[in-house]
Amino acid sequence: MNRRLRLGLIVTILAVVAVLATIGSLILIQQHYAFLERRVPPPTRPLPGDVEFFYVANAIISTINIALLAILIAIYGNIYVKTRSQFTIGLLIFAVVFLVRDLTSSPFVTAIYGFRAYGLGPFAFLPSLFELVALSILLYLSAKY
Predict the structure, then answer these.
(1) DSSP conformation class of 136
(2) Where do the structural domains in the chain lie, given as residue ranges?
(3) What is the rounded CA–CA span in Å between residue 77 and residue 21?
């Protein structure tokens, strides 16, 4: 496949994933507020105002990280089939471990089990943001070949 076409396909996939993550996280926050309104008695502490921005950003970034890792696993699997390199096995293990980490810390997964985090401010999404930068660089270098 042409290099430009492959990179364009990856960027398109990531854009679709980001839009779907945004829609899903907004629905998740709306359900959270609906849950709080049904509670009797009312919560003793009001929710901080950072819920909307920081947790939507965290949901989007973590979902993009999951998509990046899935693409990296496919690329490394293809490279391993061609080269049978032990280094590529290490990269595959690295990508799978980070994929499991991102799946278990995704706001969507934690919400399924009823856990809600708030009050962390920008620390809710900064680790995922740094991981996104690192994975983007790794994907760029891996897709180059």
Answers:
(1) H
(2) 3-143
(3) 26
